Amino acid sequence: MKKEMILNHLIDLYLKENIPVSSGVLKKKCKLPFSPSTIRNYFQKLDSEGLLLKVHISSGSVPSREALEQYWYENLRYDGININNSSFEELADEFNLFLAIREKEFVTLKSVINFRNRFVILDFEKYEVILKYSSEVFHFFTQFINYSIDDLKKIVFSLNLNVFYKKLSVSEYKNFNKNFLYKHYQNFSIDKLITDEIFNHFKKGLSFNNDFMAYKIDAIIDEKESEFIMIGSIYDNYINFFESLSA
């Protein structure tokens, strides 16, 4: 439809140049087969639907937050992306984003051992996790034999068992540009967002918080199956970011 075409082209141009877009500029730069007056009429319809905002009478229009949320739902399709040898720190600074990476763990809980009523040993396939003994702790974890460590971490996280969560957090975790969170995410617990708890805080896919968004996906990073989270402003150009990431 014409209206959707005009809106998508306007968002593309706005994200590229970060300035309000007029009907004449949109027609010229995007080579649209409509007259400026036709484009202006659609601008008015989009404005009445809350998808465009008029910055100033003569300065053009910008997409609304609602329009951008819809745009990102339709255009971010990077789950399973293969990334090799990327400079995450440089890209996080260049695009003003917070990035988090965690390698996936494919291990299961094989047994729960009571060691002399002093320790509870969680025996996984590749390593052991040692906890202080109590009968409650021992019986709690025996429920989860054959559970993956990732599923077990989700369970203890949901129950606010933070001590157990930290003990189970043995995978490598990296984050880049924490300053972005300190500046913009003041209504969140930063302590949680800069640890691997962030991977339980956000669901897979897109989530929005006012003018900011988080995008959590699976990715192959340097040939390892991983989880990847990106947090930034809804107004930034994430298509360019992902193109740079996979270049």
Provide the residue-averaged pLDDT.
88
Helical content band: 40-55%
Separation, N- and C-terminal Cα atoms? 33 Å
Q: What is the β-strand count?
A: 11
Number of helices: 12
Given as residue ranges, the uncertain stretches (5+ residues, pLDDT < 50) are: none
- What shape does the CA trace take? elongated
Rg calc: 24 Å
Strand and helix order: HHHEEHEHEEEEHHHEHHHEEEH
Question: For the report, how would you describe the main beta sheet?
Answer: 6 strands, mixed
Q: Determine the structural class based on helices, strands and strand pairing.
A: alpha+beta
Beta percentage is 25-35%
Give a short synopsis of this structure.
With 247 residues, the protein is of the alpha+beta class. 42% of the residues lie in helices and 26% in strands.
Structure description:
The longest helix has 16 residues, at 2-17. 42% of the residues lie in helices and 26% in strands. It is built from twelve helices and eleven strands. The mean pLDDT is 88. The radius of gyration is 24 Å and the shape is elongated. The protein is an alpha+beta fold and 247 residues long. It starts with a helix and ends with a helix. Strands 3, 4, 8, 9, 10 and 11 form a six-stranded mixed beta sheet that branches. A three-stranded antiparallel beta sheet has the order 5-6-7, with helices on one face. β10 (212-221) and β11 form a beta hairpin.
